[in-house]
Amino acid sequence: MEPKIVSSFYKYIKIDNASDFAKEHLEFCLSLGLKGRILVGEEGINGCVYGTKEQVEKYKAELMKNPFFSDIEVKEHMTNKIAYRKMFVRLRKEIVHSGLNIDLRKTAKFLTPAQVKEMLDKNEDVVLVDMRNDYEAKIGKFRNAIILPMRNFRELPQAVKDIEHLKEKRIVVYCTGGIRCEKASAYLNEIGFRDVSQIKGGILKYGEEFPDTYWEGKCFVFDDRLAIQINKFNTEPLTECVWCNKKCDDYLNCHNLDCDKLFVSCEECKKLHNKSCCENCANAPKRRKEILTEN
Ligand SMILES: [Zn+2]
Ligand SMILES: [Zn+2]
Question: Which among 26, 80, 219, 238 is least buried, having the fewest CB atoms inside 10 angstroms?
Fold first, then answer.
């Protein structure tokens, strides 16, 4: 299989007729033969498309013809793994579900990856806070970053109680591509944090520019790949296989459909234990379907 491209992007911008926009956008993506997942709402667009270079280039060119999206920032990754098997464009109230009424005008100031790297090089008095879910941070994070006890973004208000002691400190928040931090940092500003900034383009942009510096492990992604490599050389896993304890950071959804838990397993144990997280699950009757072919 030819390597393909996963292209991710978002923009908070008022879309008046989001429902019509979503319908037309789906038609458009299908006409290009793209796969992926795009959320559209009155507050903007949040998406990921997956296809050949030609398909993705056509998509971007067309999207950017729209003056609302002419400056949209795109993060791209080549992959040999299948990222998506279908094309979805979904209408959502929020393009990142927080369940909070966040005033995005309060979002924190942006730092470029270069500014963040410089800060860390100089060992400045700053704390990095990971705004992703805990299971994402488990397989990869910035060195010394604080991880929040959060299973999903809706738990943000509860989770940030963990960092209340940092209210007066200089903190830099980050997430995969930046979309969650625009909301999370606005929320932190709202509840009285004094000096919050966010990384423009998130981990993906930082990793494009400065791999093998301060990132450790892999970066979790919400598609069938589950994780991608950020570093070229320092690829030491942060976690281990649940079965044999070998250093490993390959996530797998338990193939017992009644469990479906995300867990870390090495290739050998995956085969040995029926792609399951434990002995019980390995013998459970309802199994996840194997999808072998691409289309
Ligand atoms: Zn193992
Ligand atoms: Zn299981």
Answer: 80
